[in-house]
Amino acid sequence: MSDTRKQIKILGLMTGSSADGLDLCLVRFSGQSRSPNFDVLFSHEIAYPISFQKSFRNPLELSDVEIAQLDVELGIWFASEISKLELDFDYVASHGQTIKHEPPQFTLQIGDPNAMVNKFNRPVIYDFRTADVNEGGQGAPLIPVVDQYLLQRDSTDVLALNIGGIANITIVPGLHNPAPLLAWDTGPGNTLMDKAVRLFTRGEMGYDESGELAAQGILNRPLLHELLKHEFYQLQPPRSAGQEQFGDKYFQQILKQFYPANDQEFKDLIHTLTVLTAKTISQSINSLASDYSPSSLNIGGGGAYNKTLINLLKAELSGIDIHEMNKQGVNQSNKEAFGFAYLGYLFLNNFTANLPSVTGARKAVMLGKMCIPQNDYSEAGVSSR
Ligand SMILES: Nc1ncnc2c1ncn2[C@@H]1O[C@H](COP(=O)(O)OP(=O)(O)O)[C@@H](O)[C@H]1O
Ligand SMILES: [Mg+2]
Question: Least crowded by CB within 10 Å, which of 84, 94, 306, 340?
Answer without folding.
Answer: 84
